[in-house]
Amino acid sequence: MIKQEKLQPDVLLKLPRLCFPGSVLIIDTMEQMKDACDALSKATVLGFDTETKPAFHKGQYFQVALLQLANNNTVYLFRLNKIGLPHELLKILSSPEIKKIGIAIKDDIKTLRDRRDFRPDGFVELTDLTVDRGIVPKGLRDIAALVLQGRISKKAKITNWEARFLSPAQIAYAATDAWAPLEIYLKLV
């Protein structure tokens, strides 16, 4: 097994930008949520991530605002700050039959459980798999560069995920952040 180190910044900048190429659906009503969960419940593996409004003051805390779930051709952006964490979503997050692939998933699960407690199941920490394959970096950007040969922009990460409307940059960032772990997982298994 060849150990793959982190790419140098100049090499990383030369890689093509990765951006989710499929459909992105913003889910901010209960009806949309039910339709999305019906579609997602048929999947066996999904990309997974969450976003929370950043806190800039000591003691300030915000609940998770966005849950992203991706299949091969669609990313669903659930606006949890608008719809909460309904039972239909909890069924997916608790299903051992649906693998949810992500990075630093313990943190994401904790923030989801702070919003509404549930029994998480079927989650796969991507870095466990990449380390087994000799890939040293633990961050999504570096792992994607090595495995997918592309660069993920992180410019929209520190933005207001509770905004009334998500910007095109936020949507692209959130979709790519859920899709990339799925793509990496599918390439490595």
The CATH superfamily appears as Ribonuclease H-like superfamily/Ribonuclease H
Order of H and E elements: HEHEEEHHEHEHHH
Distance between the terminal alpha carbons, to the nearest Å? Answer: 15 Å
Provide the spatial order of strands within the biggest beta sheet: 1-4-3-2-5-6
- How many strands, which pairing sense, and closed or not: the largest β-sheet? 6 strands, mixed
Q: Give helix % range.
A: 25-40%
Number of helices: 8
Total of domains? 1
CATH fold-type name: Nucleotidyltransferase, domain 5
> Could you tell me the radius of gyration in angstroms?
16 Å
As a percent range, the share of strand residues is 15-25%
Look at the helices and sheets and give the structural class.
alpha/beta
Poorly predicted tracts of residues: none
Second CATH tier, the architecture:
2-Layer Sandwich
Shape: globular
> Which whole number gives the mean pLDDT?
92
